[in-house]
């Protein structure tokens, strides 16, 4: 190699440069595609979990003999309360004269689980004393908003939540 060759190197083969770029792009795409299934759980971690539609009945209609009857249960790791209410309303499930609603059992103050109120109607929170009506509206704070409503449906004698 002469001194002139070192100062003026041979021009790059443009086809070779294009091939290297193509290989890098394809390799990157393959790497991303391969990692996508592993990254999916990480991406979902920050998203609120939606309750999966129930495939098994949460209760049967027989569990609600009168207005005010409630059933507390766990579904997909979340506390749920189903209550028989006086009349049909938005979000309620109806079968004849029986109307049911489903609520999250999480108090909207700081998230403690509510219980059936000692008064016999509605719910109370053991943590700081919030009280809610049978339909989840706030009677006493510190909770400032109603219990969260959940989807509910009746199929035959079975009640499904979610
Ligand atoms: S968490 Fe229910 S009143 Fe505070």
TrEMBL record:
Q: Which domain of life is it from?
A: Bacteria
Coiled coil feature spans = none
The UniProt keywords, alphabetically, are: 2Fe-2S, Disulfide bond, Iron, Iron-sulfur, Metal-binding
What is one Pfam family matched by this protein? Rieske
Q: Which PANTHER family match?
A: CYTOCHROME B-C1 COMPLEX SUBUNIT RIESKE, MITOCHONDRIAL
- Needed cofactors: [2Fe-2S] cluster
Which segments constitute the Rieske domain?
Answer: 68-161
| UniProt-recorded name of the protein | Ubiquinol-cytochrome c reductase iron-sulfur subunit
Annotated InterPro entries: Rieske_2Fe-2S, Rieske_2Fe-2S_sf, Rieske_Fe-S_prot, Rieske_Fe-S_prot_C
